[in-house]
Design goal:
It is a single chain. The chain is α+β, with helices and mostly antiparallel strands and 439 residues long. Helices cover 64% and strands 13% of the residues. The strands form 2 sheets. A 4-stranded antiparallel sheet has the order 2-3-5-6, with no helix packed on it.
Length: 439
């Protein structure tokens, strides 16, 4: 009884383990974004840009605040300049010594240099975030291509198997021994079966490759068995006007956001280079403390004592660079970099509009293709039904039945491929505008 119960539990466990996991498109996209190396690299670049931004922000308040402290041993020395030690041998006992020094610098007025550098750092973060969004969009598009490619391969494989099985049911009846069957009918049937079998093998190979590619892209294990949650169906998406898509594309497109952030950074860097011509006003100071118990503290202001002291001060400073050629070269270089990006701005906007128009027209064409393919599919099914009815009444019309099956195979495959192109066209349009068509 115990062994029977154990065997039942093991069987149930094995059955539950063999159950394939089901993944929908959003889940696979999330997995791909989590495991993709390009995304991880882009995130690291964003973190690096944020660190640069923190450095620029830290330059406003006490960019220099340092404490140095050290200690050791020093020879004892008792007395002063009027009462020197009587021991002139130079060999004296050693005593402890400690020193600490605190320094600070606080900018007061930099003629906008620090402000412009901080703005450039902020724009650098925005640029890296746009680059991350571009990488994310590319990965999402690739996962969609693989996902819908697998759905297409699954539907076509199932279609080939179904048609082959249906044709095989007439294989025993359509023979050369049957006097009611034309001589060419058996050969036509066998050729159709061979074509479907060959087509089925090709589709299965393509399906295995597409699944492997999706496993690699999403970080799944090769040993994991999985099924997709969706099936190919018409997208049926209501599109906004082309003008609205153009406007959204210029707001959402990662390339455009990256360009705008780059322009902001270049402009801020140019202004910072111009501010370098002006003086930098700052406040500086510090506190110093040193103690050596084995040495007499000297109170004579004309005697320098580095072992016993406590002093400090605050100073107003001004730093001015007179390296006009170097400063002018830096300014010209910053201006040239800004002009380079400004030259790309107009053509980039035009390119985005052309890209959106192309994707918009292709999606409309794909929806019309789906409608046409659906009509052809329905007509072919009606033809097949008539051919089957005619074959039941007149077996000699088997060639018409085989031809109808071949036409059905062609129309069904055309319909599934039209659905596949419809989904890819919508994905391409979403990539062109930098986000979903209907948020």
């Amino acid at each position: 009884m115990y062994s029977l119960l154990t065997g039942t539990l093991l069987l149930c466990a094995a059955t539950s383990q063999a159950e394939p996991a089901t993944y929908d498109l959003p889940t696979l996209i999330d997995r791909a974004l989590e495991h993709n190396a390009e995304i991880l690299e882009s995130r690291a670049k964003v973190a690096e840009a944020r660190a640069t931004q923190r450095q620029a922000r830290g330059a406003f308040v006490l960019p220099r605040l340092r404490l140095e402290s050290y200690g050791g041993l020093t020879p004892d020395a008792k007395g002063d300049v009027f009462n020197p030690p009587s021991d002139t041998s130079g060999v004296r006992a050693l005593g402890p010594f400690a020193r600490a020094q605190l320094e600070f610098v606080q900018p007061l007025y930099t003629f906008g240099r620090l402000t412009h550098l901080h703005r450039a750092a902020e724009a650098g973060v925005s640029a890296q975030q746009a680059e991350l969004a571009d990488s994310r969009g590319e990965i999402i598009h690739q996962v969609k291509e693989l996902y819908y490619g697998i759905l297409l391969a699954q539907d076509l494989t199932s279609l080939a198997r179904r048609l082959r099985d249906e044709l095989a049911t007439w294989e025993d009846e359509v023979t050369l021994d049957n006097p009611d069957i034309p001589v060419s009918a058996p050969y036509k049937l066998q050729l159709a079966l061979l074509e479907l079998e060959n087509r089925s093998a090709q589709l299965e190979n393509g399906l295995r490759f597409a699944r492997s590619a999706l496993v690699w892209k999403t970080g799944l294990s090769e040993a994991d068995d999985f099924v997709l949650a969706d099936e190919l169906s018409p997208t049926d998406t209501a599109l906004p006007s082309i003008e609205e898509l153009h406007s959204r594309g210029l707001q959402q497109r990662p390339e455009w956001r990256h360009l705008q952030a780059g322009l902001a950074a270049r402009h801020a860097q140019e202004q910072a280079a111009r501010s370098a011509y002006y003086p930098q006003v700052f406040l500086s100071g510090g506190i110093r403390y040193a103690v050596a118990p084995g040495r007499t503290d000297q109170h004579n202001p004309f005697v320098k004592d580095e072992f016993n002291l406590f002093n400090g001060g605050v100073f107003l400073g001004l730093r001015q660079s007179f390296e006009w050629d170097m400063l002018g070269a830096d300014l010209d270089k910053a201006r040239a970099k800004r002009l380079q990006l400004e030259a790309l701005q107009t053509t980039a906007a035009q390119g985005i509009r052309v890209d959106i128009r192309r994707a918009y027209d292709e999606y409309h064409a794909s929806t019309r293709e789906v409608a046409t393919a659906l009509k052809a599919r329905n007509l072919t099914r009606e033809w097949l039904q008539l051919a089957q009815d005619e074959y039941e009444l007149e077996p000699g019309s088997v060639k018409e039945l085989v031809s109808a099956f071949e036409a059905l195979a062609t129309s069904e495959e055309s319909y599934y491929r039209a659905l596949h192109r419809d989904h890819l066209a919508l994905a391409e349009l979403e990539r062109a505008i930098g986000g979903p068509v209907n948020p």
